[in-house]
Amino acid sequence: MSRPGSLTWFAGHELRLAWRDWFSMMTAGRKSRRRSVFVWVGLFVLFLHWIAFAFVGPFAHVAPNPGKPALIVVTASLLLSFSMMLSQAMESVTRAFYSRSDLDLILVSPARADRLFAVRIGAIALLAVGMSALVMGPFINMLALAGGVRWLAAYGVIVSLALTATAFSVALTYALFRLIGAKRTRLAAQIVAAILGATFVIGLQVAAILSSGTASRFAFLQSHAVTALAPETASLLWWPARAALGDESTLVAVFATSLALFVAAAFYFSPRFADCAILAAGTAQDRARHAARAPAAFQVSTPARTLRRKEWLLLQRDPWLMSQSLMQLLYLVPAALLLWRNFALGTSASLVLVPTLIMAAGQLAGGLAWLTISGEDAPDFIASAPVTARRILRAKIEAVLGAIAFVFAPLLLVFAFVSLKDTFVVAIGIVAAAVSATAIQLWFRTQAKRTQFRRRHTSSRIATFAEAFSSITWAAAGGLAAAGSLLAPLVGLLALALLGGTRWLSPAQT
Amino acid sequence: MAVSENKVPPALELRALAKTFDRPAVAGLDLFVRAGEFYMLLGPNGAGKTTTLRMVSGLLKPDSGSISVFGVDALADPVGAKQIVGWLSDEPMIYDKLTPVEYLEFVAGLWNVESAVASARASELLRWLGLTPHAHERCEGFSRGMRQKVALAGALVHEPRLIILDEPLTGLDAGSARLVKDVLLARVAAGSTVIMTTHILEIAERMADRIGVISSGRLIAEGTLDELRSRTGKGAASLEDTFLALVGEIAA
Fold first, then answer.
1. More confident residue, A187 or B252
2. Which residues of chain B does A386 touch, with a Cβ-Cβ cutoff of 8 Å?
């Protein structure tokens, strides 16, 4: 039993909360789901191992001291993980500052708040390790199985990357606090986190498109130009890659450096977090005061228009949601670039563009549909209005589809200059994917606060998978149609069948 | 208070209303509230007050029974009934990202209030509730009292004939509570009907024309304060004593 207020006591408290939070998120608060959660997680991990086994074969026997091309690919993979970890850690740090929950209680207690924040910084690193290990673990395990235990050193590199990412994210968020103040940091940090998460993967794709006109990152990384530009194999830059390939002394050096960075960050920033948390607590009042603007004329319109306007206004004014949506839209950048380049060169890249746009539309529509249909902050109030439930739902669906049209119409317009036929295909695909995702959210709607957006996927596994598969299938149908394949209608029918099956499984039907 | 003649349909008429969740929440409730009345619904925790009011407001469907609002059958014509009802719960139902003016625009739009009329009412309500200086600030930074006042303005902006309030004074400071009470009394004086639940018996004692006491989903007593006192045989006692005696009778 640890002494109340000590570091281990806080660690125990946080660990218990985190475990219950995760478990409640996975089971959507239903005790009956406990066993199935373990079964599904187990099956998912096995499935990832199976996928990994198919991929890692050619790389398992890469020498511990390879040449530049292999070092470039491994380093790029590690940088990809690092950018994701950095993004996730920044998001976690922002939540540690702004989500009040038990923070007020701890700040008013005589316990040392710096200990709590030290524990929370540790928890952020642990989360980053856990998430990365879940995704990369199967690949490492399969590499170890096929190429020897030296590959297990990659776990050490994951821990090192997580420690470094946490240290950087804490420093970056604190710097933002000091530079732009508590009020703006929330939005800025969330947007920076979204951009960091996507920058590296998108940057690589953009570089690949600009240099070779293809979206293949792998081909780009192994190109002569990149190999020629990369530093020599003795460079420090390759240390993480060497460590991941099983070079023990390099692994020790990489881990020691990361640990030193992490300890320094935790030691330096923990005492300062309490001040930041207090500053963050005052931002709600501050924000309200600054929101005052020149008043617009009082406007009342029909119930349907009123509902649509409300949904758009709320979407537009939610910075956190903006950053979440931005994350999805950022992945459209390479598609847009490919479109622009294709337009300039007069060649066809529809095979990449059409499915990308359709899938992005499906994903975005799913998120927006959840927010408008399930994420209603005043459900009782809306239900007490003299408007039929059908009319309310119709207005909300129109709000979602309107937002999708607003985002994708400009892209379609540009697309029309490249190919009218492909524009037609992509327009149909966007409508189909968006309508399908919205319908799935409608069938599986559950009442929740908009702030629970991150948890939307846990309300129904069927809805989550159906939404993802629907977008993928529509994207595949669109890609095949653009390529002129006769399989396109068949895949389209498959998408419709998937939708029908989802409807059959939905609570509304059962 | 101005209570209308019998020819006017009752503001609310409940007949054998019933709703069961895990156990019966409302069990064959009969209730009759006259137009222009300030009716206070009292009862211990879990008595079925909120469930009753949620059914009247169209937020819950009863298992059986009937609900009539100013002669409109709320089960057959829910939209027609909602048009003349304003609802306010103890938890303010507002949007953090909207300003009070935008919120009132939204409410007026849902109730189809004509723009110029809604604008004038909104200004008046905001002024009356002391919200004019904050009319164009987003609600996210508002205190609980301010949020409750915004929600009250929303419940009144469409000039409902029947105003239903479920614990509207919870968490309000003395000044805000006084404002809300004044606004409600003014509405009753202007001809609206108010049905309100509260645990603050002093408020019921001061404001209500009639008081209904429910327990275990049934109406166990109803009348003016004097009538209730005489029923329990405690002529000089406070409402608190009367209430406890009535509820105690049932519990025994």
1. A187
2. 79-83, 110-112
CA atoms within 13 A on the CB side of A76: 21
Q: Can you tell me whether residue B209 is helix, strand or coil?
A: coil
> How close A330 gets to chain B, by Cα (Å)?
25
Per-residue burial over B153-188, b = 16 or more CB atoms within 10 Å of its CB, e = otherwise: bbbbbbbbbbbbbbbbbbebeeebbebbbebbeebb
Which residues in chain B are closer than 8 Å to A281, comparing Cβ atoms? none
- Rounded to two decimals, the ipTM of the complex is 0.71
- pLDDT band (50, 70, 90) for residue A333: low
What burial letters (b/e) apply to A115-140, b meaning 16+ CB within 10 Å? bbbbbbbbbbbbbbbebbbeebbbbb
Whether B142 and A288 lie within 8 Å, measured CB to CB:
yes
B154 touching A, CB under 8 A? yes
- The predicted-structure confidence for A411-445, as pLDDT tens digits, reads as follows 889 888 878 888 999 999 999 999 999 999 888 88
Greatest Cα-to-Cα distance within chain B, rounded to the nearest angstrom:
56
- List of chain B residues whose C-beta atoms are within 8 Å of the C-beta of residue A300: 105, 108-109, 113-115, 118-119
Nearest-by-Cβ selection for A287 from B57, B82, B141: B141
Q: Do residue A384 and residue B141 have CB atoms under 8 angstroms apart?
A: no
Separation of alpha carbons B13 and B70, rounded Å: 8
**pTM to 2 decimal places:** 0.65
Query: Do residues A215 and A334 lie in contact, with contact meaning Cβ atoms separated by under 8 Å?
Result: yes
Q: With CA atoms as reference, report the closest residue to A320 among A135, A90, A490, A119.
A: A90
- In the block, tokens 């959210």 appear at A441
Please report the domains of chain B, with CATH numbers, ordered by start residue. Answer: 1-84+165-176+199-252 (3.40.50.300)
Facing residue for B93 by CB, picked from A291, A318, A378: A378
Q: Measure in Å the smallest separation between the Cα of B231 and chain A Cα atoms.
A: 36
